[in-house]
Amino acid sequence: MKGKLATLYQKDGTKKILASLVSILIGLLVGAFVVIIVGLFNSRISLKGAWEGVRLIFFGIFSTGRDASGALTWGFNPTSLGNTLFRAMPLIMTGLSVAVAFKTGLFNIGAPGQYLFGTMASLMVALSLPTEKMGAVPVWIIAFLAGVLAGALWGAIPGAMKAFLNINEVLACIMTNWIAANIVTWAFDISNFKNVAESTKTGYVYKTTFNGVATAKLGLDKLFPGSQVNAGILVAILAAIGMYVLINKTTLGYQLKACGSNRHAARYAGIKDKRNIVLSMAIAGALSGGGAALYWLSGNTEFFWSTYQSLPAIGFNGIPVALLAVNNPIAVIFTGIFMSMLNVIGLQMSNLTAYNEYLTDIIVAVIVYLSAFALVIRMIFESRKKKAPAAEKKAKENEEPPKPDAAQNGKGGEQA
Amino acid sequence: MTFLIQQTLIFAVPLMIVALAGVFSERSGIINLALEGIMIFGAFIGVLFVRAMQLSGAYDAAKAAGDWLSLQGLELLSMLAAAVMGSVFSLLLAFAAINLRADQTIGGTALNLLAPALVLFLIRVIANQETLNMAKGDAASWFMIKKSTFGIDKSVHLGFLGETLINKVYLATYVCILLFVILSIILYKTRFGLRLRACGENPQAADSLGINVYKMRYAGVTISGALAGMGGFVYALTTSNCSSTGDVAGFGFLALAVMIFGNWTPLNIAVSSLIFGLFKCIAASYSSLDINGDGVYMLSQIGISSHLYRMLPYIITLVVLAFTSKGSRAPKAEGIPYDKGSR
Questions:
Q1: CB contact under 8 A, A179 and B315
Q2: pLDDT per position as a tens digit, A67-85
Q3: Residue B317's closest chain A neighbor by CA?
Q4: Which of the residues A23, A151, A406, B36 has an alpha carbon 20 to 30 A from that of A185?
Q5: Is A192 helix (H, G, I), strand (E, B) or coil?
Q6: Do A365 and B114 touch (CB under 8 A)?
Q7: In this predicted model, what pLDDT tens digit does every residue of A261-304 receive, in sequence order?
Q8: For testing the chain A interface, which of B113, B118, B316, B317 should be mutated: the one with the most A CBs within 10 Å?
Q9: What pLDDT digit, counting tens, does each position of B222-237 carry?
Q10: Where do the domains of chain B lie, and which CATH numbers do they carry?
């Protein structure tokens, strides 16, 4: 048992998971710190309110609201859990998008633009095709593919600019983001998909249910009553597994990774580096576009079309999802769910306390900041490893039980 | 024409000063992707400072008595506050990039995520809404320099130069231009500037000559943060009526593009920021833009969609980058953490 634990601890993957867990813990602690500081200096928030805020940060997913006396109540909350899964769906996709581009050495900060293009294509297709003739399921599939394709196209543009013109992909992505935001606004502005049927919904596009299109629930709504969850989460998980296979088990994946680690060496080895850079960004774009399609085709979401002044946060949140997962597609599933859990917690905070949902954005930013030097955190574990053998020898002599914290971390890592 | 020049300057000057912020950081060897975030933070601090001063009543008397000198002093103080807090905020990037040798792109992105989150969180807590405005009055009535500021009657025409340069302008614009010139001279004509640039080109060689690379890089990032924070406040003051919304509409990234287009040298940056400022100005006010003064708003009458005008600055950026990026020469050591042991 002890030997197994030691090898588990020395595995590279374990260390990555530990580093991510440390990042999350510090992020949450910083969030709690902000809550306390603000609570102390703001006259509208009592000390009790600050304490409630801290508890919500850590356990908000199990919050069930307030009872008659105004105290927070806790317990299993299927609505929160279901909504977590629902919000995780696009996050997993944009997280995959950023992760795949990272594998090729590209920083895909263009996920918001690709996401918007996916939104536009999938919504327009879903609302314009005749469902009575074709049936809702084929329309859903075509709309989903349209979103994927539009995202891929939009992602390929900065990829091509990077490959052929050597423009920094970060800048190209930022510019294409804002161009996309304007194009999407323009396209919906001149379209007739704007919701004119309901007077309270001016500025929004019709729900896809107007045309009878909605993602199948597959009984998940029974499992999590009152929530928005649907089968899209399964599509997202499948996409993650598909990406894992693509990156780790195929020639293309190998070529992409080779370009990422050393573009010039890859070219010397006969790999078409330019083609692979474009392709990598196209795949990344396809994933973001697919995420958008999953989110907007669900049937319970409405798109605010005049979006030229803001970019969708889901696109940017793909970055922390990918970084926290150390770009591992399978790990993205879990970090995506974690991030959306933070999101739901944020909503709980603004519903139940004087704080607001931006607090969780602060936590996310802190986590990204920490993952910038995750390498350092990993190095700290590394140096502990070097001391570990010596400690083990001593342990053998003294017949001491293995460290309990190592066992806990190992188990926690699998859950995260 | 007067209106066009003034509007262009309003957009060009924050771009220019923030692009110079980028130069100071990158010339010392640190990629500062966080310009956008620092701008957002600086804008917030500046507006908060103005608001606090207004609420404390310290300037009410000055405002009532028409004491323009002290109101301009308040504007300068707010700029200073934004600059100081901007450099404090940028220390986060400096610490991660210099001491911990973190990935500078990710570190910058983290700051870009942190700034709007923190700012919006605080705005909600402070003002209980999404925007932080001035406590009373608006930017024009408090800070704008008008004819009445100098005791000149409104009906007097000052000539083209007078109308353009001293009527309906902000002191901040000129302060930024002055700072731009001074800092450019510091970067090129002083020992400090030479050392800073050396750290961005070949830090090992610089270190061997006794220059403290860490210190120089800290100086570069801190100056960068101060300029970006100030630029953010100037942007908020002159273009959005001294309000902070946790957003500067990609201005920090535009500044980065200006910096690359300007090839990391101040003079080119000044020229290119004027070009970008012009397009940004067209995008913002094409419908009320009267170029030759005949009362016809030409740009809005050609029949081009407003959406295209709004897109234009970003499209131009991409096109310009496409043409210039092959010949651009970034500082050699930028983005590479300095490691004393490596050769």
A1: yes
A2: 777 777 887 888 888 889 9
A3: A175
A4: B36
A5: coil
A6: yes
A7: 888 898 898 899 899 999 999 999 999 999 999 999 988 888 88
A8: B113
A9: 999 999 999 999 999 9
A10: 2-324 (1.10.3470)
